[in-house]
Write a structure and sequence with these properties.
This protein has 567 residues and is of the alpha+beta class. The strands form six sheets. Strands 1, 2, 8, 9, 10, 13, 19 and 20 form an eight-stranded mixed sheet that branches. A seven-stranded mixed sheet has the order 6-5-15-16-17-14-18. It has a three-stranded antiparallel sheet with strand order 3-7-4. Helix 1 (19-42) runs parallel beside helix 3 and helix 8 runs antiparallel to helix 10 (379-386). It starts with 5 loop residues before the first strand and ends in a 14-residue tail after the last strand. Bound molecules: flavin-adenine dinucleotide and iron/sulfur cluster.
């Protein structure tokens, strides 16, 4: 049959080449070697034949789509690669100092007299996630794990309700859906067990959760982080200095905050997290980040320097109560795809690594029995909840939900939650999906046409503040232009009708890469949604925040997207 896909059989398939998957793959390889050695030394039990472990990554290389703050708690790294310091691990610096600063709109700042315990990073390291992921990818290759960059998983393969692998996307399809000269059909990677480590709002994980009803008691909720790495004049910030900011540019009702992390060689990582549960249709996380950099406190650090890289990505902040069921027959969910993120500490790296490693331990048991049913994989669920990652999440299980009770109350309850190990606010506080918080322009501004000032718009100076196009250029994002857009708008009539009337098309603002543009044809006067999809940073904000759930993000042709190397 002409359309039959080539089949490649593997034993274990990790979808997504981030820290969660790579840690899982490396740990599994180590566990099998250890098991086989024990069998040969003791002469008991059965050795496991070297399995084929594969990792699919949609980016052009491992690390290209991985963006974070980042301060790494090395607890999982020490377990996975005990000699990491001798193996050229790309650590920027050990944390030397922690500070929490409140920024005022008038340009002032108040330094907190002490660092709240959750934000104490003693013994942690500042890293660039893209570099760190690339390094772990190299260790995985040394362990003979097969990594396939430039391949996106676009469809889950099932046998009944059992996951049996994924299909990769076709390449060489033009915008009209016709095959081009370089057409390459996707392949079916058939696997005994498939591990979904696609990062936040994974496109296949979303399908799996819906098909198998895996959602947790609360819906998952997100922040979007917008960041830049700057090269600054010598002496502006010490490598390993960690500063978290509260206040400006966010108002009291906005969840989120800023970070400033000193890297080596006079580089600094600066970013702003914005909770996607905001209600203002004119909110624009990229613009707010520019305002953040314009604050005198930030300006003093970056003025005279050079912006070297830009990136944006969501992170899941729904916490413990938003964790889905993590296993099905033949399938498991790890890392940000599952929601392993300790929002109170702004940390998901160690949790992603640990979840991948614990998934590997359950897979090893499956290999011993040649059984990858849900029953065999299920111990992973309890193991990860009992681990330090699960326990940290449990301690602050109502942290994000508490913000809807007002910032000050939330800070007080968050502080008490930490000190008392979650003994107050014990019961689950419910949550709503982020898009449901969106209010109409008239509800927020009392008028259907607020002024530019009311909307919060600013002019970018091109020196320390930049428009989205300039920033996107510094992300290296490109896509093959001749392909169907990977942002699937389900009903354009909603964009031109109800969304314009009520919300003035918030996608044109919440997207940190200027992908969505409403243009008016000069001759006909007709408005049209233009998709500059080549700009897309794969942050997934649009998939989360569209008020009508009218945007479905699907992977573009493998190899497209940002080319991160420092963020
Ligand atoms: C702005 C920001 C700041 C943060 N700061 C910190 C911090 O300071 N400390 C900390 O510990 N944590 C921090 N985090 C959280 C941390 O970055 C994440 O928890 C962690 O990176 C999750 O790892 P992961 O492997 O699950 O996902 P990811 O790193 O997102 O990796 C997933 C991979 O899967 C690939 N992929 C996705 N879908 C497919 C598909 N269908 N086919 C093929 N490949 C696919 C992606 O390209 C990507 O490479 C921060 C997050 C953000 C956004
Ligand atoms: S189109 Fe969507 S996923 Fe792409 S950068 Fe914009 S908001 Fe993020």
């Amino acid at each position: 049959m002409a359309d039959e896909h080539e089949v490649m059989e593997v034993d274990v398939l990790f979808v997504g080449g981030g820290l969660a998957s790579l840690s899982g793959a490396v740990h599994l390889s180590n566990l099998i070697k250890k098991h086989n050695q024990e069998v040969s030394e003791k002469g008991e039990g059965e050795a496991i034949e070297e399995p084929m472990i594969a990792v699919l990554e949609k980016g052009p290389y491992v690390g290209a789509h991985n963006m974070s703050g980042a301060v790494l708690n090395p607890v999982a790294l020490k377990e996975l690669v005990p000699d990491f310091e001798d193996r050229d691990c790309p650590l920027e610096a050990e944390v030397v100092d922690d500070e929490v600063v409140y920024l005022t709109k008038a340009g002032g700042r108040l330094k907190a007299p002490f660092t709240p315990p959750p934000l104490n990073n003693h013994g942690h390291y500042v890293v660039s996630l893209s570099r760190f992921t690339e390094w772990l990818g190299n260790l995985a290759e040394e362990a003979e794990i097969n990594i396939f960059p430039e391949f996106a998983g676009t469809e889950i393969l099932y046998d009944g309700d059992k996951v049996v692998g994924v299909r990769t996307g076709d390449k060489g399809i033009d915008a009209q859906g016709e095959k081009k000269g370089n057409y390459e059909q996707g392949i079916d990677l058939v696997s005994k067990v498939t591990v979904f480590g696609e990062g936040p709002r994974g496109s296949l994980t979303k399908q799996l959760k819906a098909k198998m009803n895996l959602d947790g008691p609360n819906p998952q909720t997100y922040v979007v982080g917008v960041k830049e790495v700057w090269e600054v004049p010598e002496g502006r910030i010490e490598p390993g200095k960690v500063i978290h900011t509260m206040g400006y540019p966010h108002g009291f009702n906005q969840y989120g905050g800023g970070f400033i992390y000193g890297m080596k060689n006079n580089h600094v990582s600066i970013g702003l997290l914005t909770g996607l549960d905001y209600s203002d249709p004119y909110q624009d996380p990229h613009r707010e980040f520019q305002k953040f950099k314009d604050h005198p406190y930030l300006k003093k650090i970056i003025e005279g320097g050079k912006m070297v890289q830009y990136g944006a990505k969501t992170a899941p902040v729904g916490g413990y109560w938003a964790l889905p069921k993590l296993t099905v027959d033949g399938g498991m969910i790890i890392g940000d795809s599952a929601g392993f993120f300790v929002s109170q500490k702004i940390k998901g790296l160690h949790a992603a690594m640990k979840s991948g490693m614990l998934a590997a331990e359950a897979i090893l048991e499956g290999m011993k029995k040649n059984d990858f049913s849900q029953g065999t994989l299920a111990p992973y669920e309890q193991a990860v909840k009992d681990s330090y990652a699960g326990q940290e999440m449990y301690k602050c299980r109502n942290f994000h939900q508490a913000f809807h009770n007002g910032l000050v109350r939330a800070m007080i309850s968050a502080g008490f939650q930490y000190i008392l190990g979650g003994k107050i606010l014990k019961d689950r506080l419910p949550a709503e999906p982020d898009f449901s918080f969106q209010k109409t322009v008239a509800e927020v501004y009392g008028s259907a046409s607020p002024s530019e000032e009311q909307k919060g718009n600013i002019k970018f100076d091109g020196e320390t503040t930049f428009d989205k196009e300039t920033d996107v250029y510094h992300s290296g994002a490109t896509h093959e232009e001749q392909q169907p857009p990977h942002l699937r708008i389900l009903d354009l009539n909603i964009c031109y009708g109800e969304c314009t009337e009520k919300y003035q098309n918030p996608c044109t603002r919440f997207c940190p890469a200027a992908v969505y543009e409403m243009v008016t044809d000069e001759e006909t006067g007709k408005r049209e949604m233009r998709l500059n999809f080549s700009n897309c940073l794969h942050c997934k904000t649009c998939d989360v925040k569209d008020p009508f759930e009218n945007i479905n993000w699907v992977p573009p042709e493998g190899g497209g997207g940002p080319k991160y190397s420092m963020v």
